[in-house]
Each structure stands twice: as C-alpha cells, then as structure tokens.
Amino acid sequence: MAEPWLSGTLGEYHAVVRAVLHGLQQAQEDIEEWTDDLVDEELWLRPSELAPVGFQLRHIAGSIDRLLTYARGEQLSAEQLATLKSEAAPGASRGDLMTLVEQTFAQAAAQVRGTDPATLTEARGVGRKALPTTVGGLLIHSTEHTQRHVGQLIVTVRVLRAAR
C-alpha cells in the first residue's frame, strides 16, 4: 500500500494542509504497525538507554497538542504543562496510550482540516518568550517533530524485538 502522500487523497486541501495531514496519517500508521505486538511491560523498558516507547507515545500526543495550541494563538494551560512534566512517568498500558494517540491525531486532523490557508502566514509566538513563527510553521513542525519521535520509537521497538 502506498504511503499517504502517494495515495492521491486530500486533493481538496491546500498543499501545506494536505502535507500536514498526510504526515500525521503516516505517523499514526507507523505507530500502529510498530507497536502492535508490544506488551505493556515493554513500553517502559529503556534498552541501551533509549527513551521508552511509552514516553515516545505520550510525547508525540502532548507535543502535537501543544504545537496546535500555539497555532490557534493560545498559550499552554496549566494542565498541558503538567502533562508535559509527566510524559516519562511509567505505567500506562498500550491500550491507554493508543487511545491517547488516536484521540490526539483525530483532534489534530480536525484542526488542520479547518485551517484557512489564508492564515498560514499569520504570526504566532511559542512559549513564554513568544518565539516567532507562523501558523504554517507550527502545523509543519507538528509533523516534523512527530516523525522524529516515531523514528525514535521504531529504533526502540527494533531493539526490544531483538532482545526477545
């Protein structure tokens, strides 16, 4: 099956919006494929000092949420900041983490689909220092950052599988 960007889908969307949607779709497909045989205990192992798969899943969901909050022109809530601090806390099950990822990707896709292409160049600030970027920059970075962590997740899963 072709990767989402080669599927010929989402042609009704602006190229930037379409690329972000395809990137998120690819990331979700990769996450599902690479975690489908993991047991809950494996999610929190740190083979060769790699970040645990459970952390990667929480961080992917949390970072998408945070980046898209900034894209809406909002600041992070106290709850989002607390979530950020707890991403590495072990214990969540694969089912719980996959539900979190699925919900996050669905919410992200809805927001990205609803983005008016005319707003892509609108200025946005990130963090307390309001570091400069744009709506489009935040949308694109949400997929770049996600793909980076999916790659790390895949490496960790490969090491875990090799150790079985």
What keyword list fits this structure?
164 residues, mainly alpha, two-stranded antiparallel sheet, 5% strand, globular
Topology as a string of helices (H) and strands (E) = HHHHEEH
Number of strands: 2
Q: What is the overall pLDDT average?
A: 97
Can you summarize the main beta sheet?
2 strands, antiparallel
Helix % is 55-70%
Beta-sheet strand percentage? under 5%
Query: How many helices does DSSP assign?
Result: 5
Over all CA atoms, what is the radius of gyration? 16 Å
Summing up helix and strand content along with how strands pair, one would put the structural category as: mainly alpha
Low-confidence stretches: none
Strand arrangement, largest sheet?
Answer: 1-2
Overall morphology: globular
Quaternary organisation: single chain
Task: State the end-to-end CA separation.
Answer: 29 Å
